[in-house]
Every structure is written in C-alpha cells, then in structure tokens.
Write a structure and sequence with these properties.
The longest helix has 27 residues, at 268-294. The chain has helices at 2-21, 24-40, 48-72, 74-77, 95-116, 119-139, 146-155, 157-163, 170-193, 195-201, 206-209, 214-237, 242-265, 268-294. It is flat, with a radius of gyration of 20 Å. 80% of the residues lie in helices and 0% in strands. The chain has two domains: 1-167, UbiA prenyltransferase (Tetracycline Repressor, domain 2), CATH 1.10.357; 169-295, Four Helix Bundle (Hemerythrin (Met), subunit A) (Up-down Bundle).
Length: 295
C-alpha cells in the first residue's frame, strides 16, 4: 500500500507542477473578469459558444504567458522564499519544457480566438500576453514603474470579454479602469510584505527602491481613490441601479479604510489586511454587478 501511494504521488506531482506553471490563481481572475465583460455587454447577437471559445482561448494564452514568465525568472525565483517552491526552481519541470509550453499555449490560444471569436479579442489578449512577458517581466529588474505597466495587461481581460460580442463601449473601459487601479494597492501590499524577498531577487519594486515607504503609501491611497471613483462612474455610464451604487460605495469605503490604516501603521499585519480586503473587494463588486444586471 505504501509503495502504491509513493508511486501515485510521483505520477501526480508533474501534473500539479504543470498546472502551477500556468499561474492558476491569476488565470482564474482573468477568466472571471473576462466573463464579466462579456456578461455586461449586449451579447444578444452572440451565442454562449462565443463566450466558451473566448474563455478557452484566454486560458491557453494567459497560461502560456505565466509559463514564460516563470521561465524568464527561473534563476531569480531560486533566491526568493515566496517563489522557491515553483516548478522550475524545484526542478520538477525542465526549463526547455516551460519555454516550449509557454510559446505553444500562446499560439494555440491566439489561433482559437482568431478563428472562433474575432480579431479584436485576439489582438487584446495577445497584447496582454506579450506585454506581460516581454515588457512587464524584464521591467521588474529595471524600474519600479513595472507595477504600472503590469497593471495594463492585468486590466485587459474584461475589455477582451466585451470585445467578443463584436463591440467595445465606454463601460468596458470603465471596467478596465477599476481593474487597473485595483491592482496597485493589491500588489503594493504584497510588495511591502515581501520587500526583503524582492530585494534578494533583484527586483526594483517601489518598497525596495524607497524603503521609507512614502511613495508606496501615496500610490496606495491614490489608486484606491481612483478605483472607487471608477466603480461609482460605472453607475452613471453602465445603466447600473442603486443596489450597485450603494454596494460599491460601501465596499469602497471598507477598502479605503484598510488602505488608510496600512499607510498610517506601515506594518506587515496591516498590509496583509489590505491584501485580504483587495481579495474580497473584486469578487464582491462583480457579484454586485451581476445582481444589479439580473434584478
């Protein structure tokens, strides 16, 4: 029995490693926000299959960009505690396989989107994947502006989902603004918590470049406010109801309070609370949008 268990663990380990190579948590967020963009658009002229093709193509493309990101950062990941257990530093997957898988997944995803969805969605998803790999990833070792640049591909999914219906309206770009702004306090909380780790990896994150945190805290407050403004703006441009408006204001207040406490305390526990608040904020806001749309 023990031998069978060991053999099963050996067989299952590579499967989980290949899944981890695609950064499944980021992938899940991308698919959810892309589906939200499609859901909010006027999709009466498109079938459910278009949504499925869109999500399928994005799964391959985003998973591929995650694999290439880990391929590029494989040596750096060995130096950081938070990334040491990734598949490549652990030697679970050969680096050449990660490179091949990353390129192949992006190519497959692009083909699915081009032939089964439309060119606009294809270009948006390809732009997100390539900018994440070729611009954001190397910038992490050059300038703290990498966070700003990296938030752009991270905010494209709802626009790409909207584009799958055949058009892109102002509501799609408001969703882009919400997601773009949300990523800053979300990531700066992480960067503050792991600033020593990022320093070991040679990453030019803002808390590493300016250890006193003044610029980091200004960024957190500024983008938290931008996020709240964009969420309220959606009420005016997206034909949302008062259920959404009240919920968005309350949710934004909850988030902003956590941001203020973090910036005043400068402590890791408060950074962790802000991170948790950001993880709560986005799905709850999306639920509010769905509820308002359905009622």
């Amino acid at each position: 029995m023990k031998a069978n268990t060991i053999q099963m663990n050996f067989l299952m380990q590579p499967i989980s490693a290949y899944i981890e190579l695609t950064k499944p948590r980021i992938l899940t967020m991308v698919l959810v926000t892309a589906a939200m963009g499609y859901f909010l658009a006027d999709n009466s002229e498109t079938s459910v299959m278009v949504l499925l093709y869109t999500l399928c193509g994005m799964t391959f493309s985003v998973g591929g960009s995650g694999a290439l990101n880990q391929y590029i950062e494989r040596e750096t990941d060995k130096k950081m505690h938070r990334t040491l257990n990734r598949p490549l530093p652990q030697g679970l997957i050969p680096s050449w396989q990660a490179l091949f898988i990353g390129i192949a997944l992006i190519a497959i995803g692009t083909a699915i989107l081009f032939f089964l969805v439309n060119s606009a969605t294809t270009l948006l998803v390809l732009l997100a994947a390539l900018s994440y790999v070729l611009i954001y990833t190397p910038l992490k070792k050059i300038t703290w502006w990498n966070t700003f640049v990296g938030a752009i591909p991270g905010a494209i999914p709802p626009v790409a989902g909207w584009a799958a219906t055949g058009e892109i309206s102002i509501e799609a770009w408001v969703l882009f603004g919400i997601l773009f702004a949300w990523q800053h306090p979300h990531f700066y909380a992480i960067a503050w918590m792991y600033r020593e780790d990022y320093a070991r990896g040679g990453f030019k994150m803002l808390p590493v470049v300016e250890p006193d945190g003044k610029s980091t805290f200004r960024q957190v407050i500024f983008y938290s406010l931008v996020m709240i403004i964009c969420s309220v703006w959606l009420f005016f441009v997206g034909n949302m109801g008062y259920i959404y408006l009240v919920g968005a204001i309350f949710l934004g207040g909850f988030f902003f309070q956590k941001a203020l406490v973090f910036c005043r305390s400068k402590q890791k526990p408060e950074a962790k609370k802000l991170l948790k608040a950001s993880i709560i904020y986005l799905p709850v806001l999306l639920i509010l949008i769905c509820m308002d749309k359905l009622i």
